[in-house]
Structure formats: structure tokens, C-alpha cells
Backbone:
């Protein structure tokens, strides 16, 4: 029988003696409304009603006394969707200091579905700095920290919040049995202080913890490399039964072989078809390349080892860079900063200055042996050019005039499709793909253009693109066109305040139409017949999706949820879909951040991975899913702060064996009709 004890007090330092600790229902816990939802308690369940227009709200389980989650694996709850459509949820903890990421998880429940959901807890060996720049430049850590004055109670958990992103239609769900679950063997609590720094070892790993696969010496690194080489030699071919040279279903139906990738719908299901005429599913991974650069400027104390800039072996692991993204982060506006690449340093430890050729060739052998069928976005042009694994190419609309009033675009401001030279500039950019030969290369699946543009989520708030145009300088072409339309509809004295919801919809629908049609024509001009894979939506209003379906060959989505989703209005043109990014992360392999969809450990992470891919393969529209990404992100983050522990392999270049075996398992069952 499972033992159950009350939650630990904050001051407790030993590992929990029980495997389950109740949060709700439990003495001293209330179920309260969060941001406007109606909440009542019936038969031990919190029943939550969200009125139409509620958008994102839910229930907050508040404790009279703050409690600690140190030493617990995850927070779990039994949730039932009482609505006739799928609902998306996020569950997280809330501390006295409003720090919300001690435990966090996201999930989806289908209509009428009931299941146990979880939010993995942050290991206590990963410090949290409540409050300014305890660990500046790391995602979730740009907070003030002074070791001599920080109040430890700021990390005390006061509530567990479960909220629903239900859109404008309202929702009902109920929540039972909220608890902490899974005692962990260690509850050593680290703080960001003089004893913590430095926390990065000579290989770029977290210094204050141990895990399977951690490297402790160059000899150990070389031994792991030799073991992997032997393993690849023993399994040189794809685990896909009957795979052809592209990773397509060679033993499946023989279709027309056109010498390039195309799409075809068979028996109600969309497929990619490879150049040899075989059905193909793009089981891919983004960033198949060495990508370990991380800023050092103003963070020198993080690192236990950094070579001199003129070091004969490691000197070229240094570089300079500048954060040019629109997203707010520590290095935005700081100009050029120095960076160091531990992933590259580890390759040089293995192969010296001639590492590039061996590295490029090995990535193809890995992909074939493990069962990946494609290289996703931003993969290395030199690796792609070897012509051994299918890949996608891409270009961004740098140099195209942007809507200056766009403050919501995380990566780039939205392009001004009304600029006189918009079409000309898009053609110029289409000539600047990562790999020149991708225009005609049979190994190229197609082209993505841009990434996660901020289309906006609807019209009732005024429309994001329309509002951005209105907030732009008076000479902005989009602003001029928006105002012209309003005055044509409402008279010569009309202002932006006179815009109706229908005005906004009509304007933004035209923006989407011009955007997708112009990009499609540019691709046809530069690379006739190459598949246009879309813009990698992360949000969009319905008319943007409709326009994408009209002009894209495949509509792409970056879908960071526990299951794949490729939404499209029912009246849109029928087109296939591809998931350009997804991942699941965990902190039991030395990372500091578990990513957008966190899991409590590697085993859970792989179960989520396999379920996600299997659901995508079963979806009649989805023709591929691309994991984000090849290497774990640097422990100290990229220039934009992203530091997710979500790679197929570690910074040392050692693959995570669980990821390899899970991919092989998925590859063996990839094809059927």
C-alpha cells in the first residue's frame, strides 16, 4: 500500500518519506477562481466553469501555509474535460515571490477525456534566483539575487494553478486529487552564491550534479566516442523495414517517380512522396549541426575553464555576436558580445583541427542508423550538401521593409506586404537560401520561409497587425493602406478608432493573402516545383490559415504541446501539414531548463515523444514532425536566453541512448496504409 503523508514544511531538508502528498482536497487548501472562472467544490472535485469570452482562466488551489516541493518529482492531478471539444491546459506552482516555474507542465484533453496530468518539479540541485540578475542571460533566471539578503520563503509554494486556454467559447472541467508525487533520493538545495559559482565545467556541463552519460575526462570522452562508432558500425542501416535510399517506404506502393519530393493524397490521407516514388514521412530533427555558442560577456564567473583567445587548439571556439531578435532578453541592445562554443571544443578534443569532415559525415550515419528520415530547419548547409539525408531549406525576409509598430513579433517585426518593392525583395531573399543547390537537389524536401511570425489570435481586440500598422510612422505603407481603407468605408475624416471588427478582418485577410501569394510566386520564380512548406505558425487568425492553405504546398506549425495539432478552418483548402518544431525536456541529464514542454525525467520524456509521433503518424493531414533539436542547448543559453535541455545529444556529443532507442522504435512502425 502506498504511504501518504502531509506535504513537507519549507524548513524540511530530508527527502520525503512518502511517495504521495495531498494538496487538494486536504485540510488548509481552498479551491479558488483564477482570473474570472467560476469554481465550486462537489464530492471532492473542483468543478470549473469558464464563461464564453473567458479565454484563459481556471482554478487556484491555495494553501494556508506555504509548502516546499524540494525532493518531489512532480505535481499531479486528475482532470476531466466536460466540454465537447479539446481543451489546452497549463498547470504550475505559484510562490510567495510570484515565481511560477518551480513546477510547470502543459497538456491537452480531448472532448470528454479524463486522465492524470503532471507538472514536473525542478530538481533542487538547480538553483532558483528569486528576484535581478542571479544568473543573467538564462531563460527564467534574469532575477535579482543577493546571497546576503534573499528570503528563502520567497520560494515557498503557496498555490497550484491550473488554467485553461479555451478560446472565446467557454469551457467546463473538473479537477480531483491534486498531489505531489514521487520522492527523489536527494534534496540538496543550491543557491546562487560564491559556492555555486562557477557552475560550468570544462566540457560545458553542469558541475554540481551527476547523471548517466556525464563526462569527467578527455579519456572518458574518447572512450564514449569509440563505443558509439562501434555501435553505428553494428547498425549501419535504417531500422525502417524496406527503407529506400531517402528513408521512404521502399516496400510500399510504387507511385510516379518525379525526381523530387511532392505531395499526394491516397485513401483520404496525405503523404509526402520521395523522388523515387515512395511514400515518405518526415521524421526529422532541427539544427543538425554543431550549435554550442553561448555568451560569456558579463558572465565570466559562470565558467571553471575558458582558454585564452589565442589558444592553438581552442582559440577558434571563441567568436563575437550580437542579439538582433525583437524578443526581450538579457543581451538585447548590448551590442557585440563574446561567445564560447563548448560543443566545438569537445569535437576538437576528439578530432583536433580536422573535426569538421568527420563530424559532417557522422551526422548522416547517425540519422540513418537511428531512423530519422530528414534534417529539419537550420541544419548545416555543408552537412545537407553531402546528399545522404533528405532535408528542408529556408530563408527569412531580412531586408524586406517591416511594420515598425509591431512590438509583439518575438523574432522579427511583421513584413509590410504593401511596400512597393515587397515582391522584388522576397525574390531577392529567395536567392539567399542556406544551400544554393537546394533549388534543384532531389534531397531537398522543400523550403520554409520565416518562422513564428506574429499573426495574432483574432480580431476582437483590434487585430494585432492592424494595430501594429496604426502604431507605425505616417510613411509606413501598411499604415497608409489601412487608413485609406477606413476612409473609403467610413468617410474622409475616419480614424483608426472608427475601425469595426469586420474592417480589421478584411484588412488582415488581405495582408495574409498578399504575404503567402507573394512568397509562393517568389519560390516558383527561383526554384520551380520546390515545395513551399509555409511559415511555421505558432498562432494565427483563421483567415491567415485559409490563405496559407491556398498558397502553401504544406502548411507548417510549431506545436509545443503534449500532442500534435494542425488547426485549419473547415472551409479551407485541403492541404497537408508538417510540425516544424516540438520537444519534451527534462533536467535529469544536467540541464538548467526543461524547455517549453517539461517532463519529470528522461523516461517520461521518451513516453511523451513516442506518443506525440504516433499520434502525428495516425493523423491524415500530418506528413512530418521535426524534433527541436539535435544538441542540448548550451547550459548557459543562447544569445536570446534559450537554454533548453531538449537535445538528441549532450554538449559533449554523446547521444542520449533513450532518445536513440525511442527513435528506432518509432522508425520500425513508421509506414503502413
Residues:
Amino acid at each position: 500500500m502506498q504511504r501518504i503523508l502531509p506535504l513537507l514544511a519549507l524548513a524540511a531538508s530530508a527527502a520525503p518519506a512518502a511517495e504521495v502528498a495531498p494538496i487538494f482536497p486536504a485540510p488548509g487548501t481552498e479551491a479558488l477562481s483564477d482570473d474570472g472562472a467560476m469554481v465550486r467544490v462537489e464530492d471532492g472535485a473542483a468543478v470549473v466553469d469558464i464563461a464564453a469570452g473567458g479565454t484563459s482562466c481556471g482554478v487556484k488551489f491555495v494553501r494556508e501555509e506555504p509548502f516546499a516541493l524540494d525532493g518531489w518529482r512532480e505535481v499531479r492531478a486528475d482532470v476531466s474535460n466536460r466540454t465537447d471539444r479539446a481543451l489546452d491546459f497549463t498547470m504550475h506552482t505559484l510562490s510567495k515571490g510570484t515565481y511560477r516555474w518551480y513546477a510547470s507542465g502543459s497538456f491537452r484533453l480531448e472532448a470528454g477525456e479524463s486522465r492524470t496530468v503532471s507538472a514536473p518539479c525542478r530538481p533542487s540541485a538547480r538553483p532558483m534566483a528569486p528576484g535581478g540578475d542571479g544568473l543573467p542571460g538564462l531563460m527564467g533566471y534574469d532575477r535579482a539575487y543577493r546571497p546576503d539578503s534573499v528570503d528563502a520563503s520567497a520560494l515557498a509554494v503557496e498555490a497550484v494553478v491550473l488554467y485553461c486556454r479555451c478560446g472565446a467559447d467557454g469551457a467546463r472541467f473538473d479537477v480531483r486529487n491534486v498531489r505531489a508525487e514521487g520522492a527523489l533520493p536527494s534534496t540538496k538545495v543550491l543557491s546562487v552564491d560564491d559556492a555555486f559559482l562557477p557552475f560550468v565545467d570544462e566540457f560545458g556541463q553542469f558541475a554540481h550534479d551527476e547523471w548517466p552519460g556525464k563526462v569527467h575526462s578527455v579519456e572518458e570522452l574518447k572512450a564514449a566516442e569509440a563505443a558509439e562508432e562501434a555501435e553505428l558500425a553494428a547498425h549501419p542501416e535504417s531500422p525502417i523495414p524496406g527503407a529506400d535510399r531517402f528513408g521512404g517506404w521502399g516496400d510500399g506502393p510504387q507511385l510516379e517517380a518525379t525526381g523530387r519530393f511532392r505531395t499526394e493524397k491516397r485513401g483520404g490521407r496525405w503523404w509526402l512522396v520521395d523522388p523515387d516514388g515512395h511514400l515518405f514521412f518526415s521524421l526529422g530533427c532541427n539544427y543538425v549541426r554543431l550549435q554550442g555558442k553561448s555568451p560569456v560577456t558579463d558572465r565570466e564567473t559562470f565558467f571553471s575553464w575558458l582558454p585564452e583567445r589565442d589558444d592553438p587548439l581552442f582559440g577558434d571556439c571563441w567568436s563575437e555576436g550580437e542579439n538582433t531578435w525583437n524578443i526581450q532578453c538579457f543581451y538585447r541592445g548590448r551590442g557585440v558580445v563574446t561567445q564560447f562554443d563548448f560543443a566545438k571544443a569537445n569535437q576538437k578534443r576528439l578530432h583536433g583541427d580536422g573535426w569538421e569532415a568527420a563530424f559532417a559525415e557522422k551526422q548522416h550515419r547517425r540519422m540513418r542508423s537511428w531512423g530519422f528520415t530528414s534534417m529539419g530547419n537550420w541544419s548545416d548547409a555543408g552537412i545537407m550538401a553531402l546528399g545522404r539525408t533528405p532535408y528542408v531549406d529556408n530563408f527569412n525576409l531580412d531586408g524586406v521593409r517591416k511594420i515598425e509598430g509591431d512590438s509583439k513579433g518575438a523574432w522579427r517585426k511583421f513584413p509590410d506586404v504593401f511596400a512597393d518593392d515587397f515582391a522584388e525583395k522576397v525574390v531577392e531573399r529567395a536567392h539567399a537560401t542556406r544551400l544554393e543547390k537546394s533549388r534543384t537537389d532531389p534531397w531537398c524536401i522543400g523550403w520554409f520561409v520565416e518562422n513564428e511570425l506574429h499573426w495574432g489570435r483574432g480580431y476582437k481586440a483590434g487585430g494585432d497587425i492592424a494595430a501594429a500598422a496604426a502604431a507605425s510612422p505616417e510613411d509606413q505603407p501598411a499604415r497608409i493602406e489601412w487608413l485609406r481603407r477606413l476612409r473609403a468605408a467610413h468617410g474622409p475624416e475616419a480614424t483608426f478608432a472608427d475601425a469595426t471588427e469586420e474592417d480589421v478582418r478584411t484588412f488582415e485577410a488581405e495582408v495574409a493573402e498578399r504575404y503567402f501569394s507573394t512568397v509562393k510566386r517568389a519560390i516558383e520564380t527561383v526554384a520551380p516545383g520546390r515545395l513551399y512548406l509555409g511559415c511555421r505558425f505558432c498562432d494565427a487568425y483563421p483567415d491567415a490559415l485559409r490563405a496559407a492553405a491556398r498558397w502553401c504546398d504544406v502548411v507548417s506549425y510549431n506545436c509545443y504541446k503534449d500532442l500534435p495539432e494542425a488547426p485549419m478552418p473547415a472551409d479551407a483548402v485541403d492541404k497537408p501539414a508538417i510540425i516544424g518544431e516540438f520537444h519534451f525536456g527534462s533536467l535529469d541529464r544536467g540541464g538548467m531548463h526543461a524547455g517549453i514542454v517539461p517532463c519529470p525525467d528522461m523516461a517520461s520524456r521518451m513516453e511523451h515523444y513516442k506518443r506525440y509521433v504516433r499520434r502525428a503518424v495516425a493523423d491524415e493531414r500530418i506528413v512530418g514532425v521535426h524534433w527541436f533539436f539535435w544538441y542540448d542547448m548550451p547550459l548557459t543559453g543562447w544569445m536570446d536566453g534559450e537554454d533548453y535541455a531538449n537535445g538528441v545529444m549532450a554538449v559533449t556529443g554523446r547521444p542520449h541512448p533513450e532518445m536513440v532507442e525511442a527513435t528506432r522504435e518509432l522508425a520500425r512502425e513508421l509506414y503502413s496504409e
Remarks:
- The CA atoms of residues 137 and 330 lie 5 Å apart.
- The radius of gyration is 26 Å.
